[in-house]
Specification:
Layout: H1 5-17, H2 27-32, E1 37-44, E2 50-60, E3 67-70, E4 76-77, H3 82-95
Antiparallel strand pairs: 1-2, 2-3, 2-4
Length: about 100
């Protein structure tokens, strides 16, 4: 998923406030990695609040038909919440 500015702000607020959050999962890090394409995985609870997220950086290998999908130190979520982890995993598979 590609985020608009309002969604990026919400995403970054979640990353910065979460106990497992790390700067390498922020939209600012995606902007630094200009040679990589970026996609975001977001899982929301029943109230629409983000409960899990992951930045996926994608880079195509030159002269090959392969790409690398890299999630730096991610995802950011409660690692005991298997439904959220599974949902992020499914989104990453679609990206890959």
């Amino acid at each position: 998923m590609i985020l608009n500015d309002i969604e990026k702000k919400e995403y970054d607020e979640f990353i910065y406030s979460h106990k497992n959050g790390i700067i390498l999962q922020t939209s600012g890090w995606a902007e630094i990695k200009k040679e990589w394409k970026s996609e975001y995985c977001i899982v929301r609870d029943e109230n629409g609040k983000i409960k899990g997220a992951c930045l996926a950086l994608i880079r195509k290998f030159p002269f090959m038909n392969y790409s690398l999908v890299y999630c730096p130190c991610g995802p950011v979520c409660d690692y005991n919440d298997y439904d959220t982890i599974y949902s992020i995993h499914c989104q990453l598979k679609e990206i890959a």
